[in-house]
Design goal:
With 411 residues, the protein is an alpha/beta fold. 51% of the residues lie in helices and 13% in strands. Strands 2-1-3-13-6 form a 5-stranded mixed beta sheet, sandwiched between helices. The protein has a 4-stranded mixed beta sheet with strand order 9-10-8-11. The radius of gyration is 22 Å and the shape is globular. The relative contact order is 0.17. The structure holds beta-D-galactopyranose. The site of beta-D-galactopyranose has 12 residues, from loops.
Length: 411
């Protein structure tokens, strides 16, 4: 009898899948080179729900700088996509949940057994006392230093353990016609600053920045600007015109020694450029952040007023599933936060990231929406400009403190 009921339930499910109709609009910034992992998920969805027309709506631009602006216009204009990419943490909670724009997904989490499948620290990042607000699809690491091992050997250097060590290597690399560090457009500079600040403040000090326990004008936070300035003197002068992929390309082609980038760079190098981790490219935690995992997670939610609600719930169910996550993440360079993820499907880089995720001290990324809401991040992007035009660490630190208060960072 039990078997018969299971069979009937399974047939019902299959019929439901086949019957699903209409459309589903997924909104993200995973366009072009960033697309393959999302496209693989959509393919899986199409197989399960062949009657649904999936619209893969993307707005190009690393870290979502352009997509977030378009999303805001649509959300405020009453035209939400069915589901959209949003970073776990303050970008989700401080922006969209605070504005009461998301549906609570607690019952989906209960139905799918996700309260046990995902680690508690991640569930905390997507929850408030009133609900659970999105489905995380991955864990990315922001504090990674990338290089080509054979090139470092040729140039007589090894990956620096501290920024001081990097600054000693800098003239040596320059003398050989090599750019010591390749940096790209503004948001990648915010990310570089972030990794330097984690090294000067330590993980606890970094966490305390976001509660106000440590001020942006604290001597250690000011010191982060001093180091940032020195490090940027060892960088390419055309940074603002480069995408993160173009920066990665310069390391791969041997024009530059190092790049600081999140591990989507591993996805790009393996999935798009077909390189082998460990031999074609190497990695370390960014200088001074050994034992710290600067994390971010992409997630998708269900905005209130979504036109294709049931299709969206099916989408969320798929992307939170083991199959969905182990399809997406090996292509993306990220790991699955699911505790039952099958690591044999992942390459050497991701396996090492998964190990560090378990062992390291976890902190949340500023540049990728975990630590602060978007209003703060947008204005912090201008603080980078203030630093370069004034050349003053104190002025940059004061500006950061002022926007923390102005944007209600500590509320
Ligand atoms: C991050 C996002 C990653 C990757 C990266 C570069 O914000 O979480 O998945 O897309 O931007 O665009």
């Amino acid at each position: 009898m039990k078997r018969l009921l299971t069979l009937i339930a399974a047939l019902g499910l299959v019929a439901g899948m086949a019957q699903a109709q209409g459309k589903l609009e997924i909104f993200s910034w995973w366009a072009g080179d960033e697309g393959p992992a999302l496209e693989a998920l959509i393919k899986l969805y199409n197989q399960q729900y062949p009657g649904v027309d999936v619209i893969n709506a993307t707005v190009t631009g690393g870290s979502g700088v352009n997509a977030r602006a378009v999303l805001k216009t649509r959300m405020l204009g009453g035209d939400p996509p069915d589901s959209f990419q949003v970073h776990a943490g303050q970008e989700l909670i401080g922006d969209w949940v605070a504005a009461n724009r998301m549906e609570d997904l607690t019952s989906l989490f209960q139905q799918q057994g996700w309260l046990d499948a995902f680690p508690q620290n991640l569930i905390d990042l997507i929850s408030t006392p009133d609900g659970i607000w999105s489905v995380p699809v991955n864990i990315h690491r922001a504090n990674v230093l990338w290089y080509v091992p054979a090139d470092l050997e040729k140039w007589g250097v090894t990956a620096p353990a501290s920024w001081e060590e990097f600054l000693v290597q800098c003239p040596k690399l320059q003398a050989q016609g090599v750019t010591p560090l390749v940096v790209a457009e503004n948001w990648t500079q915010v990310q570089l600053w972030e990794t330097i600040a984690i090294s000067t403040l330590g993980p606890q000090g970094w966490n305390d920045l976001w509660t106000g326990k440590v001020a942006f004008t604290d001597p250690k936070a000011v010191q982060a600007w001093d180091t940032f300035g020195k490090v940027m003197q060892c960088a390419n002068s055309d940074a603002s015109g480069l995408t993160w992929q173009q920066a990665t390309d310069r390391v791969v082609s041997g024009q530059a020694a190092y790049n600081v980038m999140g591990d989507w760079a591993a996805g790009y190098m393996t999935t798009t450029l077909k390189l082998t981790p460990g031999t074609d490219f190497g990695w370390e935690a960014t200088p001074g952040t050994q034992g710290v995992f600067d994390m971010l997670a992409d997630s998708f939610g269900l905005p209130k007023g979504a036109q294709d609600r049931q299709n969206t719930l099916n989408w969320l169910e798929l992307i939170g599933s083991k199959q969905g996550q182990d399809t997406f993440n090996p292509l993306k360079g990220s790991i699955s936060p699911r505790l039952d993820s099958d690591l044999s499907l992942y390459n050497a880089y991701s396996q090492s990231a998964a190990k560090d995720w378990q062992a390291d001290t976890i902190v949340g990324s500023l540049a990728h929406g975990a630590a602060a809401k978007t209003a703060f991040l947008n204005q912090f992007a201008d603080v980078i400009g203030i630093y370069f035009s004034s050349g003053s660490s104190e002025q940059a630190a004061n500006a950061a403190q002022a926007i923390a208060l102005q944007t209600g960072l500590y509320q």
